[in-house]
Amino acid sequence: MMGTAESDVIKIQEEFKTEALTPGQLMRMRFVRHKMAVFGLIMLVILILYSFGGAFIFTEAEANFTNTKLRLNPPSAENPFGTDTVGRDILIRTIYGGQISLLIGLAAVVVEVVLGVLIGAIAGYYGGWIDGLLMRFTEAMFNIPQLFLLLVMAKFFGGSVPDINLFGRQFSGSVVVIIVIIGLTSWMYLARIVRANFLSLKEREFVLAAHTTGTSNFSIIFQHILPNSIAPIIVSGTLSVANAILSEAYISFLGLGVKPPTATWGNMLEGAYNYVETAPWLWIFPGLLIVLTVLSINFVGDGLRDAVDPHALVDAG
Amino acid sequence: MTEPLVQVRHLKKYFPITKGILIQRVVGAVKAVDDVSFDIYPGETLGLVGESGCGKTTTGRTLIQLYKPTAGKVIFDGQDLTEIKPKTMRTLRKHLQMIFQDPYASLNPRWTISRIIGEPLRVHTITQSESAYLERVENLLETVHLNANYMNRYPHEFSGGQRQRIGIARALASDPKFIVCDEPISALDVSIQAQIVNLLEDLQDQLGLTYLFIAHDLSMVRHICNRVAVMYLGAMAELANRDDLYDDPLHPYTQAQLSAVPVPDPRVTRARKRIILEGDPPSPANPPPGCRFHPRCPIAQPHCKVEPPVWREVKPNHWVACHEV
C-alpha cells in the first residue's frame, strides 16, 4: 500500500518536472516574440531561395546572354522584369546577381569578424602598449571615410584579377577583391566592441579562476572570454551584412566594383544610371531587392539584439 | 616546529597610477600590499582579516601569483614562486587553488558544471580518459554534497550556496595542498554560511588541506582559524594564535576591531568598553608616514608619526607592529 502511494508521488513529481531552459532556448523564445524580426527572417529565407533556387530554373549563360534586338524591353510575359541595355533578362540577372551580393555580404562579414575579434581581443586582453598601439591604429582607420578607402583600395587592387571558379560558377575575380576590401575597411567598430567586452570580462572572477587553474592565455581568450562576448558580436555581425551589401552596391554603382558580365545587384544599378526615367525597370528590381535584403537583415539584427540582451537573461534565470 | 608550507617575505604589490592619453606616465602607486611577511604551516587555517580596501584580497591574489608582486618572495614548498619560470608556475598551480568571493561571478556562465569542475583536470591532464574524467567530476560533486546528475547543467540554474560548492569542487579537482579562500562566505545567507564553513572544515580534515582564510567577519574567523593575521592599510598589524589574539590583543587596531564584534548577550555588551576609531582609513596611494595607524590611534606618541614600527615577535608566536607594545 505504502509502496504504491510512494510510486504515485514519484509519478506525479515526474509529470510536473520541468526541465530548466537552456540559454539558447530562452534566446529563441525572445526572438520569436519580436514580430518584425520573424518577418525579416522569413523575408531573408525567401530572398535566399530566390537567388539560389532560381539557379535551378535558369542557367548563368542565360543571365549573361546578350541580344541587342531585345534591348530595353519593358516587363512582359517573355521578360517579367524587362531587359537591360544589351538585351539581358533582368529577372535572371537579379537571381545570379543576388547570389553574388549575398555572398559578398556574408564573406565580407567573415573577414570583418575575424579581424575585429582578433584585434579587439588582443588589445583588450593584453592591455598596455599593445592595446595602445592597436587602438590608435583602429582610430586612424576610423578617421578615414570608408567610401574613400573602399574606392582607393578597389582602384588599387582591382586592376586585373583572373576569373575564378566556385560552386560550379565562373565569376569575375573582382568579387574576392571586393570581399577583402569591404572586410578590411569595416572591422574597426567590431574591434572596439570586442575590446570593451574583454576589458570588463577579464577582471571577472571566473577568468581569475582560470588563471589560478593554470589555463593558457589562448584558452582563456577563446574558451572563457570570447563565448561570453559572442552576443554583441553576432548582433554587430548581422547588421554588418547589410552594410557590406550596401558597400558593394556603392562601389559597383561607381564602376569600381564587380566587373561585368558577372551580375550583382549593385552593378546592375550602374547601367541604370542613364535610364532613370526612360527605363525604370532597370533599377526598380535590383534596387528593391537591395532594400528588402538590407531591411530584413536589420530587423533580424534588432531581434537578435533583444534576444541576447543580458538583462532579459537575468530575469529568466 | 614543522616547516612552513608557505613563507611570505616582504611581499609588496603596488598598482601604478598613470596619467596621459598617448604616453602613460606613472605619477604614483596604490600601495595595496606594502611589505608583508608571514608563514603558513601545513594543515592549518590562517585567518586574514581587515577592513575593506586594506589589501587582504590583493595579498591572497599576489600570494598565488595572480598578480605579479612588486617585490618580495613567496616560498611555497621550498620554491620561490616569484622567481620560477611561467611554465613551471603553470604546472605548480595545481597545488595552489582559490575559492572566490562572489559565487555569481566565479563560474563561467556559458560552461556546464562538469566542464567548470573538470577544467583543472584537463589543463593538468590529471585524468587520462573521458570515463575517468566523468568519474572524477562525479566524485567531486559528491564530495561537496551536490547531486552528480547536475553535471550537465549551467551555473544559472543554481543558488548562491550551490554555486559556492561548485567553486569549491573546482578548487579541489587538482588535489591542491593549499587553498586561498577569498571571503568565500561573505556573499551568502547566514544559514548557508554555516554549511559552507562546515564543508570547508570537513574537507580540511579529510584531505589535509591548508587554508588562507580571508574574511572580515571576526566571529567566523574565530570559529574556523588556528591563527589570525590582522591587516591595516596594506601592512600587517598583528599575527597570533587565535585564542591569544582574541583574549589578549596587543595592537590598538586589533583591540578596536575586537571591541566592535557583536556579542549576543546584552549584559556583556553593556559592560564592555567600545573603542571607537576616529576618521576613515587614509588612502593607500599616500599612506601616512611613520606608523600607518597613527592618525587614528588612541595611544599614538610623537615618534609614531616619524618612525615606522618594526614587525617583531613580542611573545612566542605573537607578532605585532607597534611601538607601544
CATH superfamily membership of the largest domain in chain B? P-loop containing nucleotide triphosphate hydrolases
Largest interface: A-B, 23 and 33 residues
CATH architectural group of the largest domain in chain B: 3-Layer(aba) Sandwich
- Global outline of chain B: globular
Structural class of chain A: mainly alpha
Uncertain segments of chain B of ≥5 residues (pLDDT<50)?
none
What CATH first level of chain A would be assigned? Mainly Alpha
Strand order of the largest sheet of chain A: 1-2
- In CATH, the homologous superfamily of chain A goes by the name MetI-like
Helical proportion of chain B, percent range: 25-40%
Biggest β-sheet description of chain B: 8 strands, mixed
* Multimerization status: heterodimer
What CATH architecture of chain A do you see? Orthogonal Bundle
Total helical elements of chain B: 10
Question: Which structural traits does this protein have?
Answer:
heterodimer; A: 317 residues; mainly alpha; MetI-like fold; disordered C terminus; B: 325 residues; alpha/beta; Rossmann fold; 2 domains; eight-stranded mixed β-sheet; 10 helices
Structure commentary:
The complex is a heterodimer of chains A (317) and B (325). Chain A has 317 residues and is mainly alpha-helical. Chain A has helices spanning 2-16, 23-33, 35-53, 60-63, 90-126, 128-143, 146-157, 174-184, 188-201, 205-213, 217-228, 230-253, 265-272, 281-307, 310-316, and strands spanning 164-166, 169-171. Chain A has a single domain, classed as MetI-like (MetI-like fold, Orthogonal Bundle). Chain A has a two-stranded antiparallel ribbon. Chain B contains ten helices and twelve strands. Chain B has helices spanning 56-63, 86-92, 113-123, 130-143, 160-172, 190-207, 218-224, 242-247, 252-259, 266-271; strands at 6-19, 25-40, 45-49, 71-76, 79-80, 96-99, 178-182, 210-215, 227-232, 235-241, 312-315, 318-320. The longest helix of chain B is centred in the middle third of the chain and has 18 residues, at 190-207. The model of chain B has no long low-confidence stretch (mean pLDDT 88). The A-B interface holds A 20, 22-23, 132, 136, 204-206, 208-216, 219, 224, 227-228, 313, 317 and B 22, 24, 61, 64, 66, 89-91, 93-94, 96-98, 100-102, 105-110, 119-120, 123-124, 153-154, 156-157, 167, 170, 174.
